[in-house]
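Hi Prof. W.,

I finally got the Integrase zinc-binding domain-containing protein prediction working! I wasn't sure whether to trim anything, so I left the full sequence exactly as given:
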Amino acid sequence: MNFQQLIKQDEVQPSRYFTVKVESFSNCIDSIQKPLCQDSQYRSILQELGKGKSVQDYSLDSSSQLLLFKYQVVVPNDPTIQLRILQRHHNSPLAGHPGQEKTLKLVKRDFHWSGMTQFIKDYVSSCQQCSRNKNIHHKKFGLLKPLPIPNGPCICLSMDFITQLPLSISFDSNLVIVDRF
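And this is what came out:
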């Protein structure tokens, strides 16, 4: 999935001023409820719970009428809704661009949807700000160690092909042989 195309739809132009956009949870509820009723994966679960029957691990929140999976709000299979939730938990100044594991933990605390782990990993790995500010987690590379000098000629040879050269007498490659003596 190309997250950059989805993000550019809601992108705000940078300015000299710093603002924090706070979205109320009621807007989030409305954007989740309507598509969830149309989602074939969850429609039957909602119907069963509406009849008063119990479905394993699922429940219906009495005040908001949201479908819950083990106390997490179920999100429909709509990438724009999932992206909005993910941006709230990853891009907001309060979240501070945490890594994949922390973002996953933050989102899983409140929400559930199928394929969430891969969706979050793909998003965080494509986040431009995270890749710019990422800390280096590996040891510094060591110094190069020179190869030992051979005792005489033709003891140690190295060969390599230089390919994709412009055609010269119907050939486009060279074989290079170097005697390391």
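The chain has seven helices and six strands. Does that look reasonable to you?

Thanks,
D.
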